[in-house]
Design brief:
The chain is α+β, with helices and mostly antiparallel strands. Helix content is 62%, strand content 8%. The strands form five sheets. Strands 2, 3, 10, 11 and 12 form a five-stranded antiparallel beta sheet that branches. A four-stranded antiparallel beta sheet has the order 5-8-4-9. A two-stranded parallel ribbon has the order 1-13. Keywords: Coiled coil, Hydrogen ion transport, Ion transport, Membrane, Transmembrane, Transmembrane helix, Transport.
């Protein structure tokens, strides 16, 4: 657990990031009358992690289940208020009302009243809005149908009269053509008409609106259901209208359907209901049509006024709620509910009328916790004070690091691999430097580093403003790691200077001992160096290029061989140095936990094995640079294993090298059984010695005790039988992993060279094949296009994708190659009861 806290002029106590804070298990005995206030004060303090002493009980069987249910109901009402405020565009007040204590019963009653009032206002508004939307649709139907009738020959009355006459003539024509009552070819509707031909034909009509996307299907279904005995006209509405049922904007058509007979009417009505078509009455009389339009328009105006008044009332109610919302939400969600959750984890002592709680807290926080308990007893007028006492336990404490806004991101990088075991060495201390440095080795471009630096400085400069805003996922991720990116960009600029210094040293070392060079090799070097560089062969003729790699190398035949050789060897040196640091950290842990076995049978053989091979390789690299030798290091390392007794010849770098290699190889071979065999047997002997003549005894409080406990199948306190086979297999796996990992991890650091090469080559390709190519056309339009492509390629590929790639590879080098040498990462975080953390989770 990483936390950032500061008081007054600085952090108190001083921050120690190398090891987690010392923790102890405490017991609190709290009188019932002051329990609520005590837990509330401890939540403000945020320095104790309570243990659940009622884990065997279900949530409904706990003491304060009713209070939690009440808080949950009030939280539901507050969520309802927030949803309504968001819909209405009302922002809750950010500054809470500085009112004193709020009684929970009064607040519950107040919230209930406000909810009932708001629900009633919403229901009335919904009814009014639906009625208003229906009137709007009715107005459109009246106007559109009237327009349809006006476009027909004659007046509206003549249209209906002619429609009646046409329908009657159509029915008589069908009756004259009817050949028989039961003919299969006779339409069903014709049979119905002929069966009742004595009755007078009555023509009816239906008007309304239907969705535009359903209009074709609507017309087709009506035609088929009535056997074509209808007359249907549609007219599209230019603007989408609000549907009274769904409340959504929908494109609709106005329709008029003329039909004959009650059965046809019944079918049409059912089809209208199925398609969600809204029907509205329409008069045949032209005079009444005008009156209806006037009446509906007047009702629309009245309805609009009523809806506006209701909206003002609703907004006024929501503003009243918004003024107190933050205070209510803070009290109910962040405090009361969390306090009762903690109270439910405490054990109730009915006879003594008190609550007993246990929890982990940092050692430095004891005085602050006791002060909070004393304050709560006084403020609650309790006659009995709370009791604070320490408990002895063999349970592993949680891990707690105090971090600030700068170190928190690096601590999160380490904790993502695994939370540190209690009091073990924290890799984050070194990660603060090594992570951005290894990133910069792969990214290594001062121009792109400046671009990253400028972007990060914007995030840092707007830190206060952005921290109070809700950011997107990617933006929040970049903002959270702003100081990590800042370090990465600074190191990207720094490594360019460092590489320049290495090249200066490399060339300088080559000309220290010119007497050892043969004339043939001197000629080769003379030709390999660029004509315009700062040296002729190995002789310096003018000042070294002040920053970065001399551009005279660019485009020469020896550019890639020179830079690749340098970067490859540099990657191995950096990898060996960091892995040695990891092995040394295992020694630091062993010293701290007083584990002599881990020193003698883990640290020492690992150092011997690793440095006999790869430490020796690093020494050869440096000696080759210093001496200017032409020795083939690949040949030296391969034949060190295959033919250790053969003469080295021209690959010899120093006198006695063959004998030295034989000794180192022998030491590496001896180190493997040294790591494998002694430790399991010594653990077994220690176990037998500890348990000799007794059925129960505590295990020693050293690092070996953890291994013994692991062999006991989860036993605690020394119970169970020591499983030698499991311990031996575990040690064998650890040994094989280290031996094979020494080779693979060293090779893994070559990614520093590979990504550095990829970044430099991509930069060169984009510059030459995009920008310079566009410049060569001597065309302004092509030049502008080339600049745009170059900028997008640089930002998208080099500043985003390459940054992410180098970040992930640096992450892997720390997690796998560095941390697995010493970091167990099997601890668990310290998660205190804190209102500040609850607020962070809510955001």
């Amino acid at each position: 657990m990483a936390d950032s806290r500061g008081e007054g002029g600085g952090c108190c106590p001083p921050m120690d990031l190398f090891r987690s804070e010392e923790m102890h298990l405490v017991q609190l005995i709290i009188p019932i009358e002051s329990a609520h206030l005590t837990v509330s004060y401890l939540g403000d303090l945020g320095l104790i992690q309570f243990k659940d002493l009622n884990s065997e009980k279900s949530p409904f069987q706990r003491t304060y289940a009713a209070q939690i249910k009440k808080c949950g109901e009030m939280a539901r009402k507050l969520r309802f208020f927030k949803e309504q405020m968001e819909k209405a565009g009302v922002e809750p007040s950010k500054i809470p009302d500085p009112q004193a204590d709020i009684n929970m019963d009064d607040l519950e009653f107040k919230l209930g009243e406000l909810e009932a009032e708001l629900v009633e206002v919403n229901a009335n508004d919904e009814k009014l809005q639906r009625a208003y939307n229906e009137l709007v649709e009715y107005t459109l139907v009246l106007r559109k149908v009237t327009l349809l009738l006006l476009l027909s020959p004659g007046s509206a009355g003549e249209f209906f009269s002619s429609a009646h006459i046409s329908a009657a003539a159509h029915q008589r024509e069908i009756g004259s053509r009817q050949s028989g009552e039961g003919s299969l070819e006779t339409p069903l509707l014709d049979q119905e008409i002929s069966a009742d031909s004595s009755k007078q034909v009555k023509l009816g009509f239906i008007t309304g609106l239907v969705s535009k996307e359903k209009s074709l299907a609507f017309e087709r279904i009506i035609f088929r259901a009535t056997r074509g005995n209808v007359f249907l006209k549609q007219a599209a509405i230019e603007e989408p209208v609000t549907d009274p049922v769904s409340g959504e904007k929908v494109e609709k058509n106005v329709f008029v359907i003329f039909y004959s007979g009650e059965r046809a009417k019944t079918k049409i009505l059912k089809i209208c209901d199925a398609f969600g078509a809204n029907r509205y009455p329409f008069s045949e009389d032209a005079n009444k049509q005008g009156q209806m339009i006037t009446q509906v328009s007047g009702r629309l105006t009245e309805m609009k006024t009523t809806i506006d008044a209701g909206s003002l009332q609703r907004n006024s109610l929501l503003k009243t709620i918004g003024e107190r919302y933050e205070q209510w939400n803070s009290l109910v969600v962040k405090k009361e509910k969390s306090v009762y959750h903690v109270l439910n984890t405490l054990s109730l002592d009915v006879t003594k009328k008190c609550l007993v709680g246990e929890g982990w807290s940092p050692v430095f926080a004891s005085k602050q916790i006791q002060d909070a308990l004393h304050r709560a007893s006084i403020d609650s007028n309790s006659q009995v004070g709370s009791i604070f006492q320490l408990l002895d336990t063999k349970e592993a404490p949680p891990t707690y690091f105090q971090t600030n806004k700068f170190t928190s991101a690096f601590q999160e990088i380490v904790s993502a691999y695994g939370v540190a075991k209690y009091r073990e060495a924290n890799p984050a201390v070194y990660t603060i430097v090594t992570f951005p440095f290894l990133f910069a080795v792969m990214f290594g471009d001062w121009g792109h580093g400046i671009c990253l630096l400028l972007a990060t400085l914007v995030l840092v400069a707007r830190e206060k403003k952005l921290s109070s805003q809700k950011l997107g996922d990617i933006t929040a991720m970049a903002f959270g790691g702003r100081y990590t990116i800042l370090m990465m960009s600074l190191f990207s600029i720094y490594t360019v200077l460092l590489l320049d210094l290495l090249i200066i040293a490399y060339v300088g070392l080559l000309k220290i001992l010119p007497s050892i060079y043969t004339s043939a090799w001197y000629d080769i070097l003379l030709c390999s160096f660029p004509r315009d560089s700062t040296t002729i062969g190995l002789i310096k003729v003018r000042d070294t290029y002040p920053f970065g790699v001399d551009p005279a190398w660019h485009g020469t035949r020896s550019e890639l061989p020179f830079l690749n050789s340098l970067k490859m060897k540099m990657s191995i040196l950096l990898g060996v140095a960091q892995m040695n640091l990891g092995i040394i950290m295992s020694y630091v842990n062993a010293i701290y936990f007083k584990s002599s076995l881990n020193i003698w049978f883990q640290f020492i053989p690992q150092m011997i094995f690793f440095n006999s091979l790869f430490g020796y390789l690093s020494v050869l690299i440096i000696m080759k640079w210093v001496s200017g030798s032409q020795a083939d290091l690949y040949h030296v390392m391969i034949y060190m294993f295959l033919s250790p007794t053969d003469e080295l010849g021209e690959n010899q770098l120093f006198p006695g090298q063959k004998n030295t290699q034989m000794v180192l190889l022998l030491l590496a071979l001896v180190a493997v059984p040294w790591m494998l065999f002694p430790k399991p047997f010594l653990l077994k002997r220690e176990y037998e010695k500890t348990h000799q003549g007794q059925s129960y005894a505590p295990l020693p409080s050293t690092d070996e005790s953890a291994e013994l406990e692991a062999a006991h199948d989860g036993s605690h306190g020394g119970h169970g039988e020591f499983e030698f086979s499991e311990v031996f297999v575990h040690q064998m796996i650890h040994t094989i992993e280290f031996v094979l990992g020494a080779v693979s991890n060293t090779a893994s650091y070559l990614r520093l060279w590979a990504l550095s090469l990829a970044h430099s080559e991509l930069s060169s390709v984009f510059y030459e094949k995009v920008l310079l190519l566009a410049w060569g056309f001597n065309n302004v339009f092509i030049l502008i296009i080339g600049i745009i492509v170059f900028v997008f390629a640089t930002v998208g590929v080099l500043l985003v994708m390459e940054t992410l790639s180098a970040f992930l590879h640096a992450l892997r080098l720390h997690w796998v190659e560095f941390q697995n040498k010493f970091y167990e990462g099997d601890g668990y975080s310290f998660i205190p009861f804190s209102f500040a953390l609850i607020d962070f989770e809510e955001e």
